[in-house]
Amino acid sequence: xxxxxSQLESIARRFDEIDAELSQPGLTGxxxxxxxxxxxxIESVVNAYAEYKAALEAKSDAEEMLNxxxxxxxxxxxxxxxxxxxxxxxxxxxxxxxTLPKDPNDDKNVLLEIRAGTGGEEAAxxxxxxxxxxx
Length: 135
Known about the structure:
flat, 4 helices, mainly alpha, 0% strand
């Protein structure tokens, strides 16, 4: 997972660099467009990574509270620890999906032609259902 952390850290650094570049005056239209597209493409990863780091911190805080305090505080810390562990697992799965390589065809448009074949009215009903499904 350390390789994943270094990849996520570099994405977060790039996000900050883009924000800094966007705040600079004198950007041309093409530069502005490419920077905002790149920022939008990595924003969800950066937000999920920030949540992940917060969940890790909450977990460590709950572990510290387990070692200290009275029994009521320990029970509260135990609940918090379980919640943090669950959240960490969810965010790890989300980050794994978000960091998968993008398909180069994802941004391209698709034309889909749906025709009612032979079969009369049933074929036309199926074609209309299929069209509604794709919409």
